[in-house]
Design brief:
By secondary structure, the chain is α+β, with helices and mostly antiparallel strands. 27% of the residues lie in helices and 17% in strands.
Length: 142
C-alpha cells in the first residue's frame, strides 16, 4: 500500500523519510528525541489518516501490534516503572501513537508528561541499536 499524500503542512507526512528504528510499508517507529523521556517513541501510520476508525480491521490490528511490540521492546531494554500509551494528535491530525517509558525519577512522575515539572529529569541512556534489534526480533525486518 502506498501512503496517502497528506497536506504539505503535516509534519508527520514531511518526516516520512526520517531515520526510523523500524519501518514497514504501513508504519514506522521513531525515537521522539525528548531529553526528559529517553526511549519515548512514536509509532506513526505512514498514510495520512486522522483516526483509528479510518483504518480497516487488518490495519488497526497491525498498528496496535506495532504499538505493543514497541512497548515490549522498551520494557525489556529499559525496565521502566510504567509505560504510557497515547494517541492524541490534536495539533497534528495524523494517526500516531506515543509510547512513553515512565520512571519514578522522570521530570513529571507520577503526573502526566504534560503536567508541571516536579524535578529535573534523571539522565538515562537509550541504546538505539539494541532497541532496533529488539523491534526487529518482535516485528521482523519490515
Amino acid at each position: 500500500m502506498q501512503p496517502a499524500a497528506g497536506p504539505p503542512d503535516c509534519p508527520l507526512c514531511r518526516a516520512a523519510g526520517e531515520p526510523a528504528l523500524w519501518r514497514d510499508a504501513r508504519c514506522r517507529i521513531v525515537l521522539a528525541g525528548d531529553a526528559d523521556y529517553p526511549g519515548f517513541c512514536r509509532v506513526v501510520w505512514q498514510a495520512h489518516v486522522r483516526e483509528m476508525t479510518d483504518l480497516d480491521a487488518a490495519d488497526r490490528t497491525r498498528l496496535l501490534d506495532v504499538v505493543l511490540a514497541t512497548e515490549a521492546a522498551l520494557r525489556a531494554q529499559l525496565a521502566p516503572l510504567k509505560i504510557n500509551l497515547a494517541s492524541l494528535g490534536n495539533q497534528v491530525p495524523h494517526l500516531h501513537w506515543h509510547v512513553i517509558p515512565r520512571f519514578a525519577d522522570d521530570a513529571h512522575f507520577p503526573d502526566a508528561v504534560w503536567a508541571p515539572r516536579r524535578r529535573p529529569a534523571a539522565p538515562r541512556a537509550v541504546d538505539a541499536g539494541a532497541l532496533r534489534e529488539r523491534l526487529e526480533a518482535l516485528l521482523g525486518n519490515g
